[in-house]
Design brief:
By secondary structure, the protein is mostly beta strands. The strands form two sheets. The chain has a 14-stranded antiparallel barrel with strand order 1-2-3-4-5-6-7-10-12-13-14-15-16-17. A hairpin with a 2-residue loop joins strand 3 and strand 4.
Length: 339
């Protein structure tokens, strides 16, 4: 029974690593790049609040379910109330338009702070990350910005033994075991951005940690977290004054598994709504849609069609994100510095 339990735990963890799932994955990363890169903290001149829920591989028992809350805001009055690219009160130029790009100037130097709470459950294992973030934004040319950010906090990994059926209630593999563990968490990132393109690089789980699910600390019983590296970029392509294409990519490097990548394509209509599609290498195709309802609320939804071997037991993946724009003194309805 002890061996069976170990095999179950190892299978779940290996499966998550192979599919880049030690940390959650997101189809709508373009809607909230802050989840992957702390340098995005405070990139807009309002307080950006987002809540997301992702149900992966629906229909498969024990499949990953992720929920999160993120909050980030700028610090610096010259940026918040005097930003060169800020809209006039009551709204103004659409950030997806050619005119906005032509008139763009680098943002005023400022600080950004934020908070993330992410919970990811797969089978009997739940991982929770709580981090605070800091970033500094600087205009390195008249039209180009560079942000450097760091995230620090704690990560909790828990094994819910009530979801495991054992032949013996006091199985030594988990009895008096270390089934809930808190470890330090650290991440960092860079974000280079202008009006019509961005590039980012970041790392999560910068401090590898050993996890033990029993009182034994033998190497055979240990599971180790590994750093996750993310490289991302995007560009605006103008089809007309109202329609803008926003292609983007995300490359993930996680040792020892092969390099993986996502590609996305969004089509934005003014600053009102967007439609898009995505592809995740050897995993899924996705469709995306979002609405900027007003200067306070926006919503995004995506559905992934599984293309891996799991498609025989999975009904796809659903993800929804709700965003709030607080302290939005210029009444913008979509991001100015991010897209």
């Amino acid at each position: 029974m002890k061996r069976i339990l170990y095999l179950l735990i190892i299978f779940i963890l290996i499966a998550r690593v192979v599919t880049a799932q030690q940390k959650p994955q997101y189809t709508q990363y373009v809607f909230n790049n802050y989840l992957l890169n702390p340098a995005v903290s405070g990139i807009e001149n309002y307080t950006d609040v987002k809540a997301g829920y992702r149900s992966q591989w629906t229909g498969l028992t024990g499949a990953p379910v992720t929920s999160y809350l993120t909050v980030n805001a700028p610090i610096g009055q010259n940026f918040i109330q005097g930003d060169a690219t800020a809209f006039p009160a009551g709204g103004g130029i659409n950030p997806s338009s050619r005119l906005y790009t032509q008139n763009y100037q680098a943002a005023e130097p400022h600080h950004g702070i934020g908070f993330t709470l992410v919970t990811d459950k797969a089978g009997p294992i739940t991982q929770t990350n709580i981090d605070v973030t800091y970033a500094y934004h600087l205009g390195i040319t008249s039209r180009l910005n560079l942000a450097v950010g760091v995230a620090a906090g704690v990560a909790r990994t828990a094994l819910n033994t009530s979801e495991i059926t054992l032949e013996t209630a006091l199985d030594p593999a988990i009895a008096n075991g270390n089934n809930s563990q808190w470890k330090p968490d650290l991440g960092a990132g860079l974000w280079l951005y202008s009006s019509n393109y961005y590039f980012g690089a970041s790392v999560q789980q910068l401090l590898p940690q050993n996890l033990y699910f029993s009182t034994s600390t033998a190497t055979a019983n240990a599971n180790k977290t590994v750093p996750h590296y993310f490289f991302t970029g995007g560009v605006k392509l103008f089809l007309s004054d109202d329609l803008t294409l926003l292609p983007s990519f995300l490359v993930k490097e996680i040792q020892p598994v092969p390099l993986t990548y996502d590609v996305n394509l969004k089509m934005s209509f003014q600053d009102k709504f967007w439609l898009g599609g995505s592809y995740r290498h050897l995993d899924s195709f996705g469709i995306l849609a979002g609405f900027n309802l007003n200067s306070f609320l926006n919503v995004g939804y995506s559905y992934d069609i599984t293309t891996s071997a799991l498609n025989s037991v999975s009904n796809g993946t659903h993800e929804i994100v709700i965003g709030l724009l607080l302290n939005n003194i210029y009444k913008v309805t979509c991001p100015q510095h991010g897209f």
